[in-house]
Structures are given as structure tokens and as C-alpha cells.
């Protein structure tokens, strides 16, 4: 006999179609935009929790933190600048942004800055692990919400898929190469690498898959 709770948390293999899924990247309505903004905010706050855990960040936050420290700017501005530069790389790759792409840049950067402001930085390692795991769950759920809106990928995801289509290299290898380069650059600039980095790498994919499953099962058919 299956466990209803475990069944509810069963990961989804694909991106489900929902009542708020757009037909095009600029197909906007109030409810769809509201869900998009909510998902991106949850994503950014989750990233803020991971940063404040002090046990290691995801690769892109390692880079943002390194740049933030080197230029003496906030994490929010650093994240915004990185996302904007990544978006510019779409031009030679002929990738087209959507409303969700632009919203991703602005809202996640702002939510990260709010997160690192309101969540106290942890010196207790055990609480730092809790921060990190909760943050990964929030990033996963936020990702599921904004992805199912269908209003365009974030700058990093768009770069990954564009490089995959243009080069013919497997998408997993493209993502691994991008994440590895970003992590190394961030570490050299002074970003925090540690257990949190490993936890993020191990669990973020599963967190997104579980969240997509939850969204699909909560959505009226």
C-alpha cells in the first residue's frame, strides 16, 4: 500500500502544464504574472537563506559573493549585474528573452538582497545546515512556479540551452561546464565554498522535480 504523503512528494519527470502556463513568452495576465513574481521571490529568499547559512553557496551565488566582496557592492547588485551580463551572451547565440527572463533578473536580485538583510548570518553550523536545506527547498519550489508560467527561461538556463543547441554538446555536460567555471571563478574571488555547495549540487535537481510534482498534483485537471 502506497504512502499518500510520499506519493504527494513523488518527483515529476517533465514540466507539467498548469492553468497559468502561457502560450507564448509575452502572453501575460494578472494571475500568471502574480504566480511568476511569487515564485521568483521565493527563489531569491531561498538563495538568501543559503548565503546566510555560511556553510557554502550554490555556484552562481559563490560568484556573486566573490564579486560583491571584491567590488564592495551588495549581493543584490552583484546578482543583478551577473544576470544582465549573462543575458547579453544570448545575443550572439540568437536566444530570445521573455517576460519571465527580465523578471528573473530584477526580482531574484531584489529578493536575495532582502534575504541577506532579514535572515541573520549563522555561526552555528547545525543551524546553517537547516538554513541551507530550507533554502534549497525554497529555490526548488520557486523554480517550479516560475518555470510552469512558461514566460521564458532565466538568463542562466537560457545560456545553457542556447549553448546546447548551437554546439550539439549534451545539455548535462554544458551545464556542468558552466557551473564548474562559475564555481571556480567565484572561489578565486573569495566566495564561500563548503558543505552547502555540495548539498546544493546534490539536491537542487531533486528539489525542483519534487516541487514540479507537488504543483502538478495541486493543480485542477
Tell me how many strands there are. Answer: 0
Q: What is the helix tally? A: 10
- Rg from Cα: 17 Å
Whole-number count of domains: 1
The stretches of 5 or more residues where confidence is low (pLDDT under 50) are none
Q: How much β-strand is present in the residues?
A: under 5%
Report the structural category.
mainly alpha
- How far the N terminus sits from the C terminus, by CA atoms, comes to 25 Å
Q: Summarize the amount of helix as a percent range.
A: over 70%
Mean pLDDT: 90
Broad shape: globular
Name the helix and strand elements from N-terminus to C-terminus, one letter apiece. HHHHHHHHHH
- Please give the largest β-sheet: none
Transmembrane segments: 33-51, 71-91, 98-119, 125-151
Pfam family, one: DUF6198
Keywords: Membrane, Transmembrane, Transmembrane helix
Mind explaining what this structure looks like?
The chain has 221 residues and is mainly α. The chain has one domain (29-216). Helix content is 72%, strand content 0%. The chain has 10 helices and no strands. The relative contact order is 0.22. Keywords: Membrane, Transmembrane, Transmembrane helix. It holds the Pfam family DUF6198.
SSE layout:
Layout: H1 4-8, H2 30-52, H3 59-71, H4 75-88, H5 90-93, H6 99-118, H7 125-149, H8 155-167, H9 171-188, H10 195-218
Helix pairs in contact: 2-6, 2-7, 3-4, 3-9, 4-6, 4-8, 7-10, 8-9
Kindly list the characteristics that best describe this protein.
single chain; 221 residues; mainly alpha; 72% helix
Amino acid at each position: 500500500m502506497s504512502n499518500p504523503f510520499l506519493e504527494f512528494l513523488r518527483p515529476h519527470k517533465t514540466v507539467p502544464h498548469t492553468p497559468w502556463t502561457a502560450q507564448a513568452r509575452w502572453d501575460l495576465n494578472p494571475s500568471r504574472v502574480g504566480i511568476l513574481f511569487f515564485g521568483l521571490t521565493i527563489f531569491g529568499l531561498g538563495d538568501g537563506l543559503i548565503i546566510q547559512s555560511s556553510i557554502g553557496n550554490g555556484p552562481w551565488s559563490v560568484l556573486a559573493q566573490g564579486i560583491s566582496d571584491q567590488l564592495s557592492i551588495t549581493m543584490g547588485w552583484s546578482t543583478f549585474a551577473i544576470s544582465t551580463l549573462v543575458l547579453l551572451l544570448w545575443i550572439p547565440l540568437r536566444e530570445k528573452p521573455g517576460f519571465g527572463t527580465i523578471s528573473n533578473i530584477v526580482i531574484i536580485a531584489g529578493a536575495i538582497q532582502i534575504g541577506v538583510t532579514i535572515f541573520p548570518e549563522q555561526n552555528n553550523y547545525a543551524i546553517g545546515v537547516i538554513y541551507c536545506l530550507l533554502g534549497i527547498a525554497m529555490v526548488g519550489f520557486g523554480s517550479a512556479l516560475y518555470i510552469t508560467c512558461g514566460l521564458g527561461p532565466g538568463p542562466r538556463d537560457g545560456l545553457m540551452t542556447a549553448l546546447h543547441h548551437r554546439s550539439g554538446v549534451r545539455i548535462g555536460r554544458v551545464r556542468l561546464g558552466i557551473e564548474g567555471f562559475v564555481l571556480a571563478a567565484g572561489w578565486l574571488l573569495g566566495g564561500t565554498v563548503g558543505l552547502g555547495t555540495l548539498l546544493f549540487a546534490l539536491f537542487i535537481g531533486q528539489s525542483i522535480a519534487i516541487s514540479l510534482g507537488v504543483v502538478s498534483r495541486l493543480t485542477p485537471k
